[in-house]
Amino acid sequence: MDWSPLWISLATSITATVLTFVLGLSAAAWRESRAGFAAALIDGIFLLPLVLPPTVVGFFLLLLFGRNGPLGKLLMQFGATIVFSWPATVITATVVAFPLMYLTARAALEQIDPHLLQAARTLGASEWRVFREIALPQAWPGILAGTILSFARALGEFGATLMVAGNIPGKTETIPIAIYFAVEADEIHRALLWCGVDVAISLVLLSGLYLWTRQGHPLRSGWGYD
Amino acid sequence: MPPTALDVQIEKQLADFTLEVAFRTSERPLSVLGASGAGKTMLLRCIAGIENPIRGRVVLNDRTLFDAEKRIAVPARDRQIGMLFQNYALFPRRTVAENLAFGFADDDRVRRDRKVSSLVERMQLGGLESRYPRELSGGEQQRVALGRALGIEPQALLLDEPLAALDTHLRSQVEMQLQNTFATYRRPVLLVTHNIEEAYRLGEDLLVLVRGKVAAFGPKDEIFQRPPSAEVARLTGCKNISRARMNADGSVGALDWGCRLRVGHSIAKAPKYVGIRAHHIDFIEAGGAQAGTENVFPCHLSQSSETPFRITLFLALDSRTDTANETPLQAEVPKEKWQRFRDSPFPWHVRLAPESLFLMNE
Fold first, then answer.
1. pLDDT at A200 over 70
2. Is residue A97 in a domain?
3. Rounded average pLDDT over B331-346
4. DSSP one-letter string for B300-330
């Protein structure tokens, strides 16, 4: 039995979730303090991967990272190719998960009582300190929900990944892709097994995260301020 | 300590009017009184640096915090101005001690602990250090918020409706604590309120704000005794204001009450209004001065409204001519006094003492 799809899926989803967390949160924090047409347009662009079919996302990514794409060419100069490599699975998973993190984080940040942030400023706190010590802990439940959603989306990513990363066993074959090709090849037991693994991972991780957040505020112990 | 002063001269466009305020205040606590929506909170926010005016300047002890022309706008974090928010804005995930220490978190532990315990003592928060804001009463929350603001050793202190969120029975106690804090603070204090009594008790000077403009500014007693305008009189709680007309003989006709009055102090050239506070109206009890004596008028009771210890009587003067258009005089009397004359037959006699009447030019 080849367990590589499990490790690839986990590595991809975790890496993509970390990237999404940082990118989505930064984008949300950046957008929060802006208004106007340009910001609304950027909003639309950020949310596109959520509404477009995965095939469209995959196709755009191919155009971008392909041999003749602007990013593809640039990376080629450093001797790196993205298409049909493991990083491609991470990039596609990040792109499709990003809108979920962005949306939930922004909603959570908008919910914060602005007086708390203003009070922190009058007390001499820098913008970074206001964000890290006041905004982030206040928005934490929403941000966590966004992280969970992003992880779930990354773990389930199939269409765009297949187009950009292909199905290379041991390299880019994630669990959803393994399931698809198992069904294609009529290997029902293998498909069932991977389905079971997928359900198990999701359940363990999601309920684990849920329990973890119930134990007080993770940021209090983890981010070291007193 | 050198004398300190806060110089404010700002202009800021609000939803339906422009906030246009200029004043200078030093160590005497200044109450900013105004109806809700008069721009009081915005004024504080502009001074604290949370909002920027479109024109004007804010100077605190020779330090320019804002100057539209010179394009100076010191960010709120560098202004060293303590602000008490109306809802206190305590950080809900931090304990009392952590809230208090927020403004000097960079100090080393020893210094920080010493400062926290001095604030705890000063704000009478002993034993509450490890509580969270939601576990505190309203009065305690207010003390934490004030202590947190004082923790940055602010050069000025701004308080936005400091008592509005408190239950009535807590107010007088918290008011006294605030007065004690102001007494030792000796730097500019601005206190915003829509409550006349709070404004009077907590401030030494008073600034009355009407739709974004300064309607009165000066020592509080001057403004309460001689409001410059009908608007200010109303805002400072004057219930009786009548249109006035100067008569040839030097008396003043109160058009809305239907009487001629002698007014004690020097008479303005063309007064538009005359006013008297409800508790300044005297009742002449049996055997006292008679009708025809200066400023004594017979009247009838048209309505009354009671509070536990006082009663407000709405009186129509018998001398009135135009019954449809006249506003009754409101007199406020302690109940004990009311008991003594409530059963006397009409007409009653009221005296509007010349020294209690004031004239207003607008």
1. yes
2. yes
3. 87
4. EEEEEEE-SSEEEEEEEETT-S-TTTPPPEE
ipTM for this prediction: 0.83
**Same-domain status, B31 and B176:** yes
- Which residues, in sequence order, are bridge partners of residue B344? none
B308, B289 contact by CB (below 8 A): no
B interface mutation test: which of A116, A122, A133 has the most B CBs within 10 A? A122
Q: Which residues of B touch A122 (CB under 8 A)?
A: 48-50, 76-77, 79, 81-83, 149
Chain B residues whose C-beta sits inside 8 Å of any chain A C-beta? 45, 48-50, 75-83, 85, 87, 89, 91-93, 98, 102-103, 105, 148-149, 151-152
Q: How many angstroms separate the CA atoms of A93 and A174, rounded?
A: 11
Rounded mean pLDDT, B136-148? 93
Which pLDDT does position B3 carry in this prediction?
65
Q: B154 and B86 in one domain?
A: yes
Nearest to B89 among A113, A137, A225 (CB): A113
| Minimal CA separation from A33 to chain B, in Å | 14
Residue among B50, B77, B151 minimizing CB distance to A126: B77
φ, ψ for residue B65, nearest 5 deg: -95, -30
**Do B120 and B73 share a structural domain?**
yes
Q: How many domains does chain B have?
A: 2
Q: What is the largest CA-CA distance in chain A?
A: 66
Instruction: Indicate whether B46 and B90 sit together in one domain.
Output: yes
CA distance A130 to chain B (A): 10
How is B128-142 classified by DSSP, letter by letter? -TT--GGGS-HHHHH
Mutation target to probe the B interface, by most B beta carbons within 10 A, among A117, A118, A121, A123 is A123
Quick: pLDDT tens for A209-225.
778 766 654 444 433 33
Distance (Å) from the alpha carbon of B148 to chain A's nearest alpha carbon: 8
